[in-house]
Design brief:
The protein is mainly alpha-helical. The protein is built from 9 helices and 4 strands, in the order E-E-H-H-E-H-H-E-H-H-H-H-H. It has one domain.
């Protein structure tokens, strides 16, 4: 039994045709992911040097047989997911776009694009600001007592956690736009609770940043507050 789906552009497709299109887009997205992952693995030595750059003066050890091999595979897969995410989201947009009204498309597509841009800005901010500040504190703290020699796997897990948590924290304006567009929470109410937001931002900044130094936490808290108030301004402009 065929179910006919009719879109706004009057194009009719059966559910079988939808499944075929979905399969093609999944295969294309997976192919892009595999291609990027393979390229990253081919240049894994350069990428490893790039990841070690914030930790200047640290000697890394391989504490288990094959540790470096498994870590490089993890790095390549993680980068494959991150770098292929715009292509994957593009395939999602192309698949759902025919079923959306013009009003829905005008909200959803800019929101998804903005989410990607903010995520990569969060990664850049974490790599250039948070990670160097956190590592600087961790390296200097107790350096006159113990020599800092780290496991490369544990170091990469630390970097990956900080990168992803910061990228997710930069989605705050997107969450505010969604709440505002669906009239769940207005920009006026968001502004009224600014005192609580400062307190919550401080807690989030302390949780996201693994180091205990105040500089890193202040940077993260300031970034969250800036994103929150930017989301309010953007929502007010959108309402007007």
């Amino acid at each position: 039994m065929k179910k006919i789906w009719q879109y706004n552009n009057k194009v009719e497709m059966s559910i079988i045709e939808h499944l075929i299109e979905l399969r093609e887009r999944i295969l294309f997205a997976f192919s892009i992911f595999c291609l990027i992952t393979i390229i990253c693995f081919m240049y894994i030595k350069n990428i490893s040097y790039l990841l070690q750059e914030p930790a200047t003066g640290i000697k890394f050890l391989q504490l288990a047989p094959g540790e470096y091999l498994f870590v490089t595979i993890k790095i390549a897969i993680s980068l494959g997911i991150i770098l292929s995410s715009p292509f994957i989201i593009y395939q999602i947009i192309c698949f759902i776009l025919p079923g959306l009204t013009n009003k829905e498309a005008s909200y959803i597509i800019p929101t998804l694009i903005g989410s990607i841009i903010l995520f990569f800005i969060g990664l850049f901010f974490s790599y250039k600001v948070l990670i160097p500040a956190a590592l600087s504190f961790l390296i200097t703290y107790g350096s006159d007592i113990v020599e800092p020699i780290w496991s490369f796997e544990e170091y990469f897990n630390f970097i990956l956690l900080l990168l992803f948590s910061t990228g997710l924290a930069f989605q705050i304006p997107i969450l505010q736009l969604v709440l505002g567009i669906f009239n769940i929470y207005s920009s006026e109410k968001m502004l009224q609770y600014w005192k609580y937001i400062i307190f919550i931002s401080t807690i989030i900044g302390a949780v996201i940043t693994p180091s205990t130094d105040p500089i890193t936490q202040i940077c993260m808290t300031s970034a969250i507050l800036l994103l929150y108030f930017s989301g309010i301004i953007l929502l007010k402009a959108l309402n007007k």
